[in-house]
Amino acid sequence: MAFGAGEWKTIARAGFGVAVLGVLAGSAFADEALKLAELSPNGTDACFGRVYDSAHLKAHPKQKVARIFFYYGHDPVSRSNEEPTANSDTSYNAFIATTVRGAKAPEWAGGWCNHESEDGKSGPIHCGMECDRTLASLKVDDKGRLVLSDLQPDIYLDAGSEEELGATEYDRQALGKDDDNFRLDPMPTATCKAEFARIDPIDPALGPPLRERLKPEQAFCYGRDYDATHLGSHPDQLTQSIRVFRGPVELASFASGGDAANWPDGADIAVTVTTRQKSVEVTQTYSCQSEADQWRCAASSKMSDFSCDIAQKEIFLKRGANGTMMLANPNSALAIVDLCSKVADGKTKSDDKVYRLQPMPQSACSP
């Protein structure tokens, strides 16, 4: 395998439905986001937070949260990523970051907040999340502090996780029984931004996102050839050679029907694989959409007919360090096996899950 699976945590979680930027439903436009005068009387972004000392935590042993910050306004989490610039005007208007005891970094969730009334201007303030879930309820006390209640213990977990994980593991991962009814002090917005920046520090070696590095009208070629020494030390790896590219066919397809303002959404890529059992190259086309810091690419039937619906066969592309490209194949979506075979129904079981690909001359990717 070209790269440790554990080092692909961010992209793997995003690929399997964990809430990440850009995939939550129900976004509010940025110019409409700041509607709650109680939280932001002057219409600017607002920050509230609290850091609990050891005496408080000792007196509340069932409270896991040691630090909590609530940001109301424009997105404090996003940074340069793969989402099209045309979508930069959309944002959630509520963001929460909590750090539990002993954790090195916060976890976060985003949602949107509105008054629970027909006119949307009065009544309790409810903050929702994707899938009709509740983030929290809000009110401001007479001292300007934000009272945050109804905070759900599973805000960082998938819906239905209690049944899937079992009671013991769910209790370990969920927030504690006393993690509710927080009273947060007003703070400078810079304080909240610094807190959210702790979640996923920027790695300078990654450089600009793929959508900036690779232009709509630009051909590219990335790949890797594995030698006998590597294959000998990875007996379960089927891939002997792999290429990811956009050539004349893919460029023409986007030029005729793509929208450059939404790049890379709708971009076609091709992936050519040679396995150690078969010396013949097999090429498969994928159609990509941006998702947070990755391209999510679904297998396409443009090149040939399939006996099954291959739209769920997905790979993920992500920028790697020092100009490389990472490719994740978590669900047997590469043509190392027949995409309609029973073998391809589950997750990839071999060492063919994650690849670190180097830029190559376009001639190396000729189909």
What does this molecule look like?
The chain has 367 residues and is of the alpha+beta class. 16% of the residues lie in helices and 30% in strands. The protein has nine helices and 18 strands. The chain has helices at residues 9-15, 30-33, 54-59, 161-165, 167-173, 189-197, 210-213, 228-233, 248-257; strands at residues 28-29, 46-51, 65-72, 90-91, 94-100, 107-115, 125-128, 134-140, 146-149, 182-187, 220-225, 239-246, 267-275, 282-291, 294-299, 314-319, 325-328, 354-359. The strands form three sheets. Strands 2-3-5-6-7-8-9-10 form an eight-stranded antiparallel barrel. It is elongated. The chain starts with 8 loop residues before the first helix and ends in an 8-residue tail after the last strand.
Tag the structure with descriptive keywords.
disordered N terminus; 18 strands; alpha+beta; elongated
Secondary-structure element order, N to C: HEHEHEEEEEEEHHEHHEHEHEEEEEE
Low-confidence runs:
1-31
Strand content: 25-35%
Radius of gyration: 23 Å
Share of helix, binned: 10-25%
